[in-house]
Amino acid sequence: MTWTRIEIDLDALAHNYKVLKKRLSRPTEIMAIVKSDAYGHGMIPVARRLRSEGVKYFGVSKLWEAVELRNAGIREPILVLLGIESSEIEQALENDVLVTVYRKELAREISEKALKHGKRARVHVKVDTGMNRLGVPFKSSFDFLDYVGRLEGLEVVGVFSHFAVADELTEEDRSFTIRQLERFTEVVRYAKKIDLPVSHFHMANSAGLIEIPSAHFHIVRPGIALYGGYPSGYFTNTIDLKQVMSFKTKIIHLKKIPSGEFVGYGRTYVTGRETVIATIPVGYDDGYSRLLSSKSEVLVRGKRVPVVGRVSMNMITLDVSGVPNVSVGDEVVLLGRQGGEKISAEELAEQCNTINYEIFCSIGGLKPKVFISSRGTSS
User: Fold this and answer.
1) Strand partners, 33
2) Which of 62, 119, 265, 342 is catalytic?
3) Are residues 166 and 278 in the same domain?
4) Which helix (DSSP H) or strand (DSSP E) does residue 338 occupy?
C-alpha cells in the first residue's frame, strides 16, 4: 500500500502557462524551464503536457536532461543552460541540442567537431550583465561575439542573459535590474550590427516575464511561475497562479498521551495537556525539512494541525486533539489543498528561511508521483 505520494496537477500547469502567455507584450515564445526534474514536478510528463499546450522551446541545466527529453520524444529545441563539457560535444551534436557557450576554447572545440561531422552546431551565447555567476563578462562580450561569429562550425542562433534581482522591487534592486537590461540591450544591438544570425534574444525569467515587458524580446524563460510558485511575495496578488504540486500521506498511528509527556527525538516538545498524537510516515528523507520541527502545520479533515516535536527521517508527529473523529488512514496534506485550507510552498519556505524553489525541489524528489489531469491520471 502506498501511504505517501506527490500529486502533480497537469491542468494547473496548463493554466499557469496560459496565464503567463497572456502577460506577453509582443509575439514572444515561452521557453519552459524544466531543469532539475521540472523543479521536482517530473520533467517528462511536464514537458509533454506543455508541448501539447503549445510550448516550442525547453530549457534544462545539463546535457543528460536534454537527452532524456529527446528519448521521450520531445523534438522541440532544447537549450542546455549550463553548457557542456568537451566529452559531451559528440552527444550534443547527435541529439541536435542547443548548447550555451561562454568560453572561447570550448566554442572552438564545438566548432571543430561539428565540422568533422559535416554540421554547424547551433549555440546560444550567455552574457553576464551583472550577476557574476556564469557567462561572458559584459565588457568582453563584444569581442566574444566577434570570435564565435567567425567560427565556421557554429551558428549563433541565440544570445541571452539572466536577471539577478528582478523579483526584488526596492529602488536599489530596480536600478540594478534596469542596468542589466541596458547592458543586454547594448549586446543585442552589437550582435545585429555584426550580422550574427541570431533569431532569439532572451533575458526574462518568471519575474521578468510578469513585471518587465521591455525584457520580453524573442523568448522568455519562466520556471517557478509555471509550477504555481511566486518569484517573491510581491507577486502574490499580481497574477493568478495555481500550485501544481501537492504532498499527501495518511495517519498510520494514533495515541492519547497525558500532559507533561515528551514527544520525539531530543525531548524538544512537551505536552501541556492531554493530547492526541498522530504519526505520519514521512520525514526529511522525503524532502520535508527538519527545520519545520514544531513550526509547520498540515491539513487533516480540512483543519490545520501543528507538527509537534522533531521531524525525523521517516516519521512526523502531529497534535490532532482538535480534529473530531480523527482516524488511522485519514489523509494528511503537507503541501497543497484540503477543503478550504491550503499549505503553500511559500508558507513552508518562510518557516525554513528559504525559497519556494527549494521546497518544490526537495519534496519533489519523492517517488511515486501521480499525474492528475482531466485527460486522465497516471503514475
Assistant:
1) 59
2) 265
3) no
4) strand 331-338
Query: At 102, which CATH number?
Result: 3.20.20.10
Q: What is the pLDDT along the chain (379 residues), one digit of tens a residue?
A: 478 999 999 999 999 999 999 999 888 999 999 999 999 999 999 999 999 999 999 999 999 999 999 999 999 999 999 999 999 999 999 999 999 999 999 999 999 999 999 999 999 999 999 999 999 999 999 999 999 999 999 999 999 999 999 999 899 999 999 999 999 999 999 999 999 999 999 999 999 999 999 999 999 999 999 999 999 988 988 999 999 999 999 999 999 999 999 999 999 999 999 999 999 999 999 999 999 999 999 999 999 999 999 999 999 999 999 999 999 999 999 999 999 999 999 999 999 999 999 999 999 987 789 999 987 767 6
265 is annotated as an active-site residue: yes
Residues 182 and 275 in one domain: no
Q: In angstroms, what CA-CA distances link 232 with 162, 216, 237, 348, 354?
A: 17, 19, 11, 14, 11
* Same-domain check for residues 213 and 336: no
- In sequence order, the 6+-apart residues with CB closer than 8 A to the CB of 284 are 290, 311, 312, 313
Q: What CATH number did the domain enclosing 308 receive?
A: 2.40.37.10
Q: Let me know: does 365 contact 38? Beta carbons within 8 Å.
A: no
Same domain, 171 and 214: yes
| Residue 23 domain-assigned (yes or no) | yes
Query: Of 17, 35, 248, 269, which one is the catalytic site residue?
Result: 35
Annotated catalytic residue 35: yes
Considering its fold, how many domains does the chain have in total? 2
Does residue 5 belong to any structural domain of this protein? no
Residue at 65: amino acid letter: E
CB under 8 A, 24+ apart: contacts of 177-186: 177/212, 179/129, 179/130, 180/129, 180/130, 180/131, 181/129, 181/212, 181/214, 181/215, 183/127, 183/129, 183/130, 183/138, 184/127, 184/129
